[in-house]
Design brief:
This protein is α/β, with parallel strands linked by helices. The protein has 2 domains: about 120 residues, NAD(P)-binding Rossmann-like Domain (Rossmann fold, 3-Layer(aba) Sandwich); about 160 residues, Dihydrodipicolinate Reductase, domain 2, CATH 3.30.360. It is built from 11 helices and 14 strands. Strands 3-2-1-4-5-7-6 form a 7-stranded parallel sheet, with helices on both faces. Strands 9-10-8-11-14-13-12 form a 7-stranded mixed sheet. It starts with a strand and ends in a 15-residue tail after the last helix. The mean pLDDT is about 95. The chain binds NADPH dihydro-nicotinamide-adenine-dinucleotide phosphate and N-acetyl-L-glutamyl 5-phosphate. The site of N-acetyl-L-glutamyl 5-phosphate has 12 residues, from strand 10. NADPH dihydro-nicotinamide-adenine-dinucleotide phosphate binds next to helix 1 and helix 11.
């Protein structure tokens, strides 16, 4: 058994971590940190976890409470994890940060896109980008994991292998992605106000979304040359889920079989990537509350475009589930421990 602590446990991502880890056979949850609900039973904050999580929230002291754990999960808004990450790394323990704070390798890029100063620069170079299926060996050896963003996970999993194997063009990648409202977190905001998000779909942050440099960083590594993407996220009236549709001009004349072979090579034995049959396309309900990423694609011979579709649950594969998968890799547990449950349908 390992001992884990969760900071930011009462946010949506923290709640998914708590749900998943409370059913993990190798884990004991030591604390559920919260500023706002300290001393309150966790199951009063999240009644769905009554009977599964019998623990009070606590506002932890970074100098004392980190001593008793083997791994810390940080699920705080960006800019706020750095002090805790610094402390735990200095103590020689493992940490999985679910914010954007350690994802970008260039600190100037982080500071300019996120508009905050990085207070733990020394830790950045040691951070491993936790895209589980792509970097399993690095993750297994890491002390600090920068867990990927939700949109990047849904976009990098389908694109990384194709760029690595040089079967698609790099200068015409257009991504149209749609997220459920839980992607915006739990704090009330203009984004998640019911009358404004219900029965409404909108594009936002066109050409300026903070996930753009994260996606470009990883695709550049895959392609071995710098590339830029066109990324348009949308807010849709669903609670969970991300559907990403990616358009690439098929200038290389890639065939369906070539692409299928690449996906089979990278993901054929990966439990959490489901490659769908030809003319079957991913949908968010088919991955709801699960750690799956569903992928399929079409080569449109009429327009000579490649269209790739992926679906994930933003809170699970896009955040807490992938973090648990990374913890499993770091501690040598079965990859799917704590994550075996099927999606919920309908
Ligand atoms: N939502 C998603 O789909 C995804 C989110 N992420 C990232 O995971 C992290 C957590 O996201 P999410 O759970 O959605 O966010 P939420 O806003 O739902 O939760 C964040 C929690 O952090 C705690 N907190 C502590 N200090 C502060 C502070 N100063 N300001 C605000 N909250 C604070 C709050 O709990 P309390 O007041 O009880 O301490 C709050 O509930 C973020 O970095 C996010 O970008 C990553 C991938 C997907
Ligand atoms: C719907 C919605 O608002 N989504 C959020 C996703 C951000 C997020 O989750 O942030 P990180 O993954 O980078 O931590 C957004 O677009 O800002």
């Amino acid at each position: 058994m390992i001992k884990v602590g969760i900071i930011g446990s009462t946010g949506y991502v923290g709640a998914e971590l708590t749900r998943l880890l409370s059913h993990h056979s190798e884990v004991e949850i030591m604390f559920l940190d919260s500023r706002s609900y300290a001393s309150m039973e966790y199951s009063r904050v999240y009644p769905s976890l009554r009977g599964s999580v019998e623990k009070e929230c606590t506002s932890i002291n970074l100098d004392e409470d980190l001593e008793n754990i083997d791994v810390l999960f940080c699920a705080l808004p960006h800019g706020l994890s750095q002090a805790a990450v610094k402390k735990i790394v200095e103590k020689g323990k493992k940490v999985i940060d679910l914010s954007a704070d350690f994802r970008l390798k260039d600190v100037d890029v982080y500071e300019s896109w996120y508009g905050v100063k990085h207070e733990a620069r020394d830790q950045l170079s040691g951070a491993v980008y936790g895209l589980s299926e792509i970097y399993p060996e690095e993750i297994a050896k890491a002390q600090l994991i920068a867990n990927p963003g939700c949109y990047p996970t849904s976009i990098l999993l389908p694109l990384y292998p194709l760029l690595k194997e040089d079967v698609i063009d790099t200068d015409s990648i257009i991504i149209d992605a749609k997220s459920g409202v839980s992607g915006a977190g739990r704090a009330p905001s203009d984004t998640n106000l019911y009358p404004q998000c219900n029965e409404n779909i909108k594009a936002y942050s066109i050409g300026s979304h903070r996930h753009t440099p994260e996606i470009e960083q990883e695709l550049t590594i895959a392609a071995g040359k710098e590339l830029k993407i066109q990324f348009t996220p949308h807010l849709t009236p669903m609670t969970r889920g991300i559907l990403s549709v990616i358009y690439i001009s098929n200038k290389k004349g890639t065939t369906y079989q070539q692409m299928k072979d690449v996906y089979e090579k990278y993901y054929g034995d990966q439990k959490f990537i489901r490659l769908l049959e030809e003319n079957e396309y991913p949908q968010t309900k088919a991955v709801y509350a699960s750690n799956y990423c569903d992928i399929s694609f079409k080569i449109d011979d009429r327009t000579q475009n490649i269209i790739i579709v992926s679906a994930i649950d933003n809170l699970v594969k896009g955040a807490a589930g992938q973090a648990v998968q990374n913890m499993n890799l770091m501690f040598g547990f079965n990859t799917d421990e704590g994550l075996q449950h099927a999606p919920i349908w309908p």
